[in-house]
Amino acid sequence: MKQTELVNLQRDSSIATLLVAAERIGVDTEFMREKTFFAELCLVQLSIRNRLICADPLGATDLSGFWFALMKCEWVVHSGRQDMEVVYQAAGSLPQRVFDTQIAAALLGYAPQIGYAGLVADLFGIELAKSHTRADWSQRPLSAEVLHYAAEDVEYLLPAFDLLNERLERLGRRLWAVQDSLDLLDKALYEISPDLAIDRIKGARNMRGPARAIATKLAAWRENEAVRRNRPRQWILRDAVLLEIAQARPASRHALQAIPGLAESTVGRAGSEWLEIIANAANTMSDYEPPPRPDEQQKSVLNRMVKAVAARATELGISAETVAPRKELVLALEGDRDLRVFRGWRGELIGKDLLAMLGAT
């Protein structure tokens, strides 16, 4: 393994100069968020061809120069959505270009969710140790062993990029990987939207009327409260309890306290706000309507869509999930046309056929 350099960003700003000269870099992050809403960025690992750098942001008051230089490079990441979210929260911006090796591998026939260690083992025959997966990255100093573990997460990103890019080029799929990776740079994925917080709660999908209206308002309240207190959503109010409140529509503190799983201290702290939300929304008829159950004709169309995707995936030698997961096809059947399967390479290879099938419903 190459020697790992630890750079304290509070004391050393020279790394920005190094980044300016780099066209492409491997990037990974380590962060903590078990007890917080916002992730605490603890380490940024970088591979720049012949160098491995662990950049320590803790304690630094001004990282603007570092972020500016970093955003100018093309990033190579593996399963980078979480990293993008953490960086966006910390920096308020995203890189201009990104290439995700997990996405690229899936387009070559690997399992859609192949891990970094699995990909490295397959490409290079190297087994990575995973002995520090539960390390406390906020602790200082970081041991040599922990830094070694962190640096391994970027050591093989650029060599993997070279191999995967070459194979994709031979198959005419390099632009597919570029298109799919660019989806990670959609800031809407990482924006906090209290009004849309209800969509995070699986059990709310089939709610309607006043219960839906109350659940929507409670979910927005929880989102704002989680941001304000910087605590996980489920610490503020668990999904199941939130939905129970919306269904029961309690009108008093006593009624609130009778709801299973709701602590008396929580009612004491937030009960008044919840009762106000319930009172204001109880007579509201939400215009939301749950998706209707598919009829026999729609079921038939969905089956045809699933089979068409599977057949095209087999022709390409990749997973059907990579082309279009069933969940996305269900959304298409429900009328959503702003889906990945209708854009880019998928739109050309299968999306038009699916739209023709949907035209029959």
Description:
By secondary structure, the protein is α/β, with parallel strands linked by helices. The protein has three domains: 4-189, Ribonuclease H-like superfamily/Ribonuclease H (Nucleotidyltransferase, domain 5); 194-281, DNA polymerase, domain 1, CATH 1.10.150; 296-358, HRDC domain (DNA polymerase, domain 1), CATH 1.10.150.80. It is 50% helix and 10% strand. It has helices spanning 15-20, 64-71, 81-91, 101-106, 116-124, 144-155, 157-171, 174-182, 209-229, 233-236, 239-248, 253-257, 264-281, 296-316, 320-323, 326-333, 344-358, and strands at 4-8, 24-32, 40-48, 51-56, 74-77, 97-100. Helix 14 (296-316) crosses helix 16 (326-333) and helix 14 runs antiparallel to helix 17. It is flat.
Topology:
Layout: E1 4-8, H1 15-20, E2 24-32, E3 40-48, E4 51-56, H2 64-71, E5 74-77, H3 81-91, E6 97-100, H4 101-106, H5 116-124, H6 144-155, H7 157-171, H8 174-182, H9 209-229, H10 233-236, H11 239-248, H12 253-257, H13 264-281, H14 296-316, H15 320-323, H16 326-333, H17 344-358
Parallel strand pairs: 1-4, 2-5, 5-6
Antiparallel strand pairs: 2-3, 3-4
Write down the Rg: 24 Å
CATH class of the largest domain: Alpha Beta
Mean pLDDT: 94
Helix/strand/pairing class, anyone?
alpha/beta
Number of strands: 6
The low-confidence parts are none
Fraction of residues in H or I helices: 40-55%
CATH architecture of the largest domain: 2-Layer Sandwich
How many helical elements? 17
Order of helical and strand elements: EHEEEHEHEHHHHHHHHHHHHHH
CATH topology heading of the largest domain: Nucleotidyltransferase, domain 5
